[in-house]
């Protein structure tokens, strides 16, 4: 399955990627295949308590220290504060008994009796009343009382979180995100409940924004390096093969170093010529001419046009073309299988794994000796955490094409991930030995070095990983993604921020359409506290996103960074920075 980034299984930490933009309380570096967290152990002994749901009222606000109760004489005389506390205690009893109207009245009495200067107690009374309103699903009243509590005590975690939940219930996701962001920072990202709410809201916001943006986006052709990398992942793809001798003018057949001119007026053959010239912007229009004229190469033109629609991120236009090719019983079976692979990959990008799996299975049925089917289905199985089935598909691909270095490397990576996540040291070592064998037998396979580097980074063998990335760069000096990975390695290995940023900047210089580079740069700028620059980087990545799902993820990162800027303005809360 061709993708803009290497296959990236879920990390063992189970942490959502948006946390990279919220800092998660500790410096974070993203490596493909895993998320590395430093100082993860902090607060684990309190996890059970922190994961508990905040439902009950309380006696005092946190973290404000309870003020002095005054002299014993005031207490004996029944000061206003003591009477307020008594009303609150009575309200707590009603609350626990499920008598919320009576509890609300008691908390209202406590608010009326409490001296205004006793801000800690007063904020508690408002928060307790909000808890009672919450039980009655009166979300507007919850928000009003929590706002009063937060005004009195800006770092009041319970009030902020309760208001966040009420805002989410009313569909005010932006304000909800700001509150839950403040809660996450105050809790040093140790409470699962608030983390889950933040994740939920960010995903909702990301999906909403991406749906609107993606629908109205201007088509954008990826970089030539990306396009060539995409097509190199197919070996049985007729449309990506060079022009055949019979398709060229006789006088051009012996010319070297020049693009051949094609005979006749075939739009498809002209499109193939433009592919050789890397003149990709003209391909869709030439394919359209072939299709509309009902030419000899209609099936090929439909598949090539669909492929470029996918490359520019227009899945809506691509699908009808793919459907037509798949349903052409008289078309070359390899064209139909290739269309099924590409539609299956498209379905996976759209988070429809069942449809995706179905297409790959049909492709295997109609063209069982097509190595591409097993190679790309193997990648799908990795994404679905079906590692054993993925290995089986890679084995089938290798059996059909023993010289497929890419399948060999990805099989090793699948075995490594299975052993690593299963905490099986002997199998991890076996997989690492497998990588050594792959790069020995296929020294020109850049992907082999790249995947091995990821595994070495997991094993904290940073020096060896760095050497592997250097080999990648030597083989593919125009591959921007490798520079991003090498830059991230410098941060993980040496905490060398300057070198890391220099390498990621180099990636952008090589390919100014590398969304992964902008996303990573944005993540690092968040960690440095440069939120405005981070948001700018995320927005650049959003404009380059190749699917609605990618765009939704990037919006989540951008929204997380923006929420942090708002929290910093309102409450002065900032997580640690690099």
TrEMBL record:
Ordered alphabetically, the record's keywords are:
Acetylation, Isopeptide bond, Membrane, Methylation, Mitochondrion, Mitochondrion outer membrane, Phosphoprotein, Repeat, TPR repeat, Transmembrane, Transmembrane helix, Ubl conjugation
Question: Which Pfam families does the entry link to?
Answer: TPR_1, TPR_8
Per the record, the major location class is mitochondrion
**Organism superkingdom:** Eukaryota
Q: Which Gene3D superfamilies match?
A: Tetratricopeptide repeat domain (1.25.40.10)
Listed transmembrane segments: 20-39
BP terms from Gene Ontology: protein import into mitochondrial matrix; protein insertion into mitochondrial inner membrane
Q: Which GO terms describe its molecular function?
A: mitochondrion targeting sequence binding; protein transmembrane transporter activity
InterPro entries found in the cross-reference section: TPR-like_helical_dom_sf, TPR_rpt
Q: Which GO terms describe its cellular component?
A: mitochondrial outer membrane
Tell me how this protein sits in the membrane: Single-pass membrane protein
Q: Write out the ranges of the repeats annotated as TPR.
A: 84-117, 337-370, 371-404, 446-479, 515-548
Q: Where is the composition biased (Basic and acidic residues)?
A: 43-57, 245-258
- Keyword flag Metal-binding: no
UniProt KW Mitochondrion keyword: yes
Where does the protein end up?
A: Mitochondrion outer membrane
Region annotation (Disordered) maps to 43-67, 242-263
Please state which protein family the record places this protein in. Belongs to the Tom70 family.
Q: What is this protein called?
A: Mitochondrial import receptor subunit TOM70
Organism the protein comes from: Sinocyclocheilus grahami
């Amino acid at each position: 399955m061709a993708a803009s980034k290497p296959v990236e299984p879920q990390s063992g930490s189970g942490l959502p990627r948006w946390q990279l933009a919220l800092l998660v309380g500790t410096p974070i570096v993203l490596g493909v295949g895993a998320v590395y967290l430093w100082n993860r152990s902090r607060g684990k002994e309190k996890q059970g308590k922190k994961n508990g749901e905040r439902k009950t009222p309380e006696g005092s606000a946190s973290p404000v220290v309870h003020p002095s109760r005054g002299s014993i004489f005031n207490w004996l005389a029944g000061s206003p504060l003591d009477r307020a506390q008594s009303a609150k205690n009575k309200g707590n009893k009603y609350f626990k008994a499920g008598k919320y109207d009576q509890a609300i009245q008691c908390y209202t009495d406590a608010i009326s009796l409490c001296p205004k200067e006793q801000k800690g107690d007063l904020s508690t009374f408002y928060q307790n009343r909000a808890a009672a309103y919450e039980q009655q699903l009166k979300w507007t009243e919850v928000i009003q009382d929590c706002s009063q509590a937060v005004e009195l005590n800006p770092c009041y975690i319970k009030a902020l979180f309760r208001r966040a939940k009420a805002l989410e219930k009313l569909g005010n996701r932006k304000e909800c995100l700001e509150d839950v962001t403040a809660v996450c920072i105050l809790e040093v990202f140790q409470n699962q409940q608030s983390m889950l709410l933040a994740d939920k809201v960010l995903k909702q916001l990301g999906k909403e924004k991406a749906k609107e943006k993606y629908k109205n986006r201007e088509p954008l052709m990826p970089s030539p390096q990306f396009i060539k990398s995409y097509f190199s992942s197919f070996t049985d793809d007729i449309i990506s093969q060079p022009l055949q001798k019979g398709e060229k003018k006789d006088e051009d057949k012996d010319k070297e170093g020049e693009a051949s001119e094609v005979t006749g007026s075939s739009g498809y053959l002209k499109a193939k010529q433009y592919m050789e010239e890397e003149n990709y912007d003209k391909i869709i229009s030439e394919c359209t001419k072939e299709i509309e004229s009902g030419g000899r190469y209609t099936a090929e033109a439909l598949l090539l046009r669909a492929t470029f629609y996918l490359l520019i991120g227009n899945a809506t236009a691509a699908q009808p073309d793919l459907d037509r090719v798949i349903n052409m019983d008289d078309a070359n079976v390899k064209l139909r299988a290739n269309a099924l692979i590409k539609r299956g990959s498209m379905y996976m990008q759209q988070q429809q794994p069942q449809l995706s799996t179905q297409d790959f299975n049909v492709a295997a049925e109609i063209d069982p000796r097509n190595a591409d089917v097993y190679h790309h289905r193997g990648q799908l199985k990795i994404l679905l955490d079906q590692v054993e089935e993925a290995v089986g598909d890679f084995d089938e691909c290798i059996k059909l094409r023993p010289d497929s270095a890419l399948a060999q490397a990805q099989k090793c990576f699948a075995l490594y991930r299975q052993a690593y996540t299963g905490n099986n040291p002997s199998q991890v070592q076996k997989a690492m030995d497998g990588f050594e064998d792959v790069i020995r037998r296929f020294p020109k396979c850049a992907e082999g070095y790249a995947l091995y580097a990821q595994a070495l980074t997991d094993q904290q063998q940073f020096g060896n990983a760095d050497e592997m990335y250097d080999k990648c760069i030597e083989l593919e000096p125009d591959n921007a993604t490798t520079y991003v990975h090498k830059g991230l390695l410098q941060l993980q290995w040496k905490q060398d921020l300057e070198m890391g940023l220099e390498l990621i900047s180099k990636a952008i210089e090589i390919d100014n359409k590398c969304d992964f580079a902008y996303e990573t740069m944005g993540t690092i700028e968040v960690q440095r506290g440069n939120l405005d620059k981070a948001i700018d980087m995320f927005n650049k990545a959003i404009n380059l996103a190749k699917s609605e799902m990618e765009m939704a993820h990037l919006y989540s990162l951008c929204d997380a960074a923006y929420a942090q800027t708002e929290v910093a303005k309102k409450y002065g809360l900032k997580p640690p920075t690099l």
